[in-house]
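Key result, reporting period 2: structure in, sequence out.
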C-alpha cells in the first residue's frame, strides 16, 4: 500500500531535554500503525510534528511524497492530516456541533452557513464511530469522555486521509473502545492511514497491523503484528521489553484488609442529590479502606467527585468528613497551573507551610528541599524543578498531581482519586497504584473513580457501580466484567456522556 505520511530523521529538543532523536517512520494506507512507549518517550511530540503542530529542529515530514511546507497545522489539515490530541483543543463556550464544524463549515447560498447540512454530516460521522453526542450542549458542560469522542468526530468530519489519535481510548469503556477500533479498521480498509498512540499492550495485540516503539526519544523497534503472533506471550514480553528496557515488575495487588474497630468512618455520603446527576447516593468509607466507583462515563461520577471535593454543594443530603484531598480527572483544567514550574505545582496551595513567622517570608531552601523530595519520590522525568508543567508528558504531569496530593496524607482524613492513571504508562501506573495503596495502609479512607475495571479490581476492597446517578450495586473486588457490566447498563445508564450538573468538612483540591 502507498505511504501517505513519511517522517524523515525528525529531531526535537526542549532545552536540555532531547524529546525526539533522529526518528524516521512511514505510515501506509490501509494500516493501523500504533506507536508505543513510556510517558516522556517522545510519542506525542513526534506525532505533533507529523501533524504540523510542532516544528522539528531537524528532518522533514512528507505527505504523499511531497514536503509539508509550510510546516503548520493549517497546511497539514489542508493536506488531509488530522490529529486528535490527548489534551483537548475545543472551545468551551461553543456547542458540540459548533466545535465539530468550526473551520469546515458547509456553506449555502449568499455566504450563509448551512447548519442543517453540518448537523446531518456530524450525526452521520458520529454514527459511523458508534457514539451519540449532545449536539446542542456547550462543550464546557460535557464530561471528559464526550470531549474525547467529540475530538474524534471533528477530525473525521474533515475527511482526514491520515488519522492520528493520541491515547484515544483513555476515557472510553471497553465496549466503546471496541467500537472505536472497529471504526478505525473500517477507515484503514477504506484506504486511510491510521496512527494510534497507546499504552495498552492488549490494544496493540488485538488491533495493530504494525507497532513502533520509542524509548527516551529514539526509535527502538518497528514490528509487524500478525495473527499467529497476536496472542503469543513471548511476543508480548518482547514488546514490553522494547518499551521499558527491562522485564516489567509484576502488578501491585491490594492485600486483604484486616477488619478492625474503625470508630467513626472518615467519609460518609448520605442521600446526596445534585440536579439530575446524583439521585440519593449513599455510602461509607472506613479508615484504611479503598472503595472503587465504576460506571459508564457520564453517570454522575464527575459530579460525585465535585461534591466530595466541596466544589459543589448537594441539593439534598450531606457529606460528612474531615479534610479530603482530591485528584481530579482533568489534570490540565483542575490539577495544574501549566505555565508555572514543576516546583510551584508540587507545593501549590501550601506556601504558608514554608513561611517563617512573623513576616511570613517563604523559606525557599525548605520549599525547594520538599519539592525535590516529592519529585524524586514520584519519579518525574525530566527531574527539573524549574521546567514549566506544560513541558512534561501527560504521565509525568499526572505524577506531579498525585505527588502533591499524597504529600498531604498527614493532614487529611480521606482521598479521592478520579481516573488516576488515565493516559499513563505501565511504570507510572505501578508507581501511582503504590501511592494509593500506601495512603490506605496509613489509615486513610480512599475513593477511586475509574473507567478501568482492572484498576478497580487491583486497588479496591469493594466496588460500587454508579448508574444514572444511583448506586446500582456493590461487588467484591474480584467481580467479573460481566457482573459489573450488567449493573452498569442494567439500570438504563447513560452511555453518551455527562448528565447535566445539578458539606462536609474542609477539602483540599489536589
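The corresponding designed sequence is given below.
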Amino acid at each position: 500500500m502507498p505511504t501517505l505520511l513519511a517522517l524523515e530523521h525528525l529531531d526535537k529538543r526542549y532545552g536540555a531535554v532531547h524529546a525526539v532523536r533522529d526518528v524516521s517512520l512511514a505510515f501506509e494506507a490501509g494500516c493501523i500503525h500504533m506507536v508505543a512507549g513510556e510517558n516522556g518517550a517522545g510519542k506525542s511530540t513526534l506525532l505533533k510534528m507529523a501533524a504540523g503542530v510542532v516544528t522539528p529542529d531537524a528532518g522533514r515530514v512528507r505527505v504523499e511524497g511531497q514536503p509539508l511546507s509550510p510546516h503548520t497545522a493549517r497546511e497539514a489539515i489542508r493536506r488531509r492530516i488530522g490529529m486528535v490530541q490527548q489534551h483537548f483543543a475545543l472551545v468551551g463556550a461553543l456547542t458540540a456541533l459548533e466545535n465539530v464544524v468550526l473551520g469546515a463549515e458547509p456553506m449555502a447560498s449568499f455566504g450563509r452557513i448551512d447548519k442543517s447540512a453540518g448537523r446531518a454530516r456530524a450525526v452521520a460521522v458520529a454514527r459511523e464511530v458508534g457514539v451519540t453526542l449532545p449536539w446542542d450542549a456547550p462543550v464546557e458542560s460535557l464530561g471528559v469522555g464526550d470531549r474525547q469522542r467529540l475530538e474524534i468526530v471533528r477530525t473525521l468530519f474533515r475527511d482526514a486521509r491520515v488519522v492520528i489519535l493520541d491515547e484515544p481510548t483513555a476515557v472510553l469503556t471497553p465496549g466503546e473502545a471496541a467500537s472505536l477500533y472497529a471504526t478505525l479498521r473500517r477507515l484503514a480498509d477504506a484506504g486511510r492511514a491510521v496512527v494510534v498512540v497507546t499504552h495498552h499492550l492488549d490494544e496493540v495485540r488485538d488491533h495493530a497491523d504494525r507497532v513502533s516503539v520509542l524509548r527516551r526519544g529514539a526509535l527502538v523497534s518497528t514490528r509487524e503484528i500478525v495473527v499467529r503472533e497476536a496472542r503469543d506471550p513471548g511476543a508480548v514480553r518482547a514488546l514490553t521489553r522494547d518499551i521499558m528496557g527491562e522485564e516489567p515488575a509484576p502488578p501491585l495487588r491490594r492485600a486483604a484488609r484486616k477488619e478492625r474497630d474503625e470508630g467513626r468512618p472518615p467519609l460518609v455520603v448520605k442521600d446526596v442529590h445534585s440536579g439530575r446527576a446524583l439521585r440519593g447516593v449513599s455510602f461509607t468509607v472506613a479508615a484504611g479502606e479503598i472503595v472503587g466507583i465504576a460506571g459508564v462515563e457520564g453517570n454522575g461520577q464527575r459530579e460525585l467527585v465535585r461534591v466530595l471535593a466541596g466544589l459543589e454543594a448537594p441539593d439534598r443530603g450531606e457529606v460528612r468528613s474531615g479534610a479530603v484531598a482530591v485528584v481530579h480527572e482533568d489534570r490540565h483544567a483542575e490539577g495544574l497551573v501549566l505555565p508555572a514550574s514543576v516546583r510551584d505545582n508540587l507545593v501549590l496551595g501550601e506556601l504558608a507551610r514554608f513561611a517563617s513567622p512573623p513576616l511570613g517570608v517563604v523559606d525557599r531552601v525548605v520549599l525547594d528541599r520538599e519539592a525535590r523530595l516529592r519529585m524524586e519520590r514520584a519519579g518525574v522525568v525530566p527531574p527539573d524543578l524549574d521546567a514549566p508543567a506544560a513541558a512534561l508528558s501527560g504521565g509525568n504531569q499526572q505524577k506531579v498531581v498525585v505527588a502533591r496530593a499524597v504529600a498531604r496524607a498527614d493532614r487529611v482524613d480521606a482521598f479521592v482519586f478520579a481516573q488516576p492513571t488515565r493516559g499513563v504508562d505501565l511504570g507510572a501506573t505501578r508507581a501511582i497504584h503504590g501511592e494509593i495503596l500506601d495512603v490506605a495502609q496509613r489509615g486513610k479512607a480512599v475513593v477511586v473513580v475509574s473507567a478501568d475495571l482492572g484498576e478497580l479490581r487491583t486497588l479496591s476492597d469493594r466496588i460500587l457501580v454508579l448508574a444514572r446517578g444511583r448506586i446500582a450495586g456493590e461487588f467484591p473486588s474480584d467481580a467479573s466484567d460481566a457482573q459489573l457490566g450488567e449493573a452498569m447498563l442494567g439500570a438504563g445508564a447513560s452511555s453518551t456522556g455527562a448528565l447535566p450538573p445539578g458539606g462536609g468538612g474542609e477539602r483540599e483540591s489536589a
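The radius of gyration is 23 Å. Residues 3-244 form a domain with the Rossmann fold fold (CATH 3.40.50.300). This case is discussed further under Risks and Mitigation.
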